[in-house]
Fold:
Amino acid sequence: MKFAYLPNFYGMLNYLESFTMDEKWSYDVVNPNRKNKNNPILENYIHHTFRRLVFERNNLESKIEKNKKIYIDKKEACFNTGLFTDNYKSIYAYFERNKRHNSDLDFVLKGFFDYSHPRLSKINPLPQRAQYFNDISDLIYNTNLDLRTNINHILDNENNRKRIPKSVRDLKNLTILFEGAIQLAKKKVQANYKVAVPQYYNGRIQLLLPICLVDPEIVDLALAVNKHDGYYTGHTCLTMDMAYNNARLIARPDSEWLKV
Structure:
């Protein structure tokens, strides 16, 4: 919103949702104070994707290389949303120079278009998708490595603790319950590597593991796991909504447990 004027942004998001691949972009329970109740996940996705592209662009030297991330010239600008139509056409956000004299913003968002749209005809090459990882192995949980989880930190941290279901939050044996849930999650990953879902958070790749505290068949939380030199650590648990938001930046989660 510091880059461009966004007229009817929520209407444009609704239109964008209408021609992307079929996907759920809303929560089952939406915060009533939130302005966008139709597709808040899509809104978060667009903002975070742009933020990542700005970061990548700022770390490049030449204008040619910069324009491969966010294309900007005297008349227009665009970036790759990372989304696709049903026919696998890449979708771009397209901007034109802002002609409003009472605005400090250089551009105005004109809409979202697939790569074959005439508005994009003069932009060559079209910008690339945001990149979140360099090594694909970072997206796969290595079951041969040790997982060191600081359960006391998770349970003592106020933000973490309030994410735990109320029915078990104050149990005296919660630590033991949590340890058992982590062991179950590790077994699930051993059976199917897709259970560990990659997410992008705070500039790095993490892996999310499903934590079942109330019912072994129902996931209550996601444990965020960081990879180090020869082992993993876990210090934070996320709600399902938080986990999905972060995971969706990389790709649509392919694991059944992480659904909204």
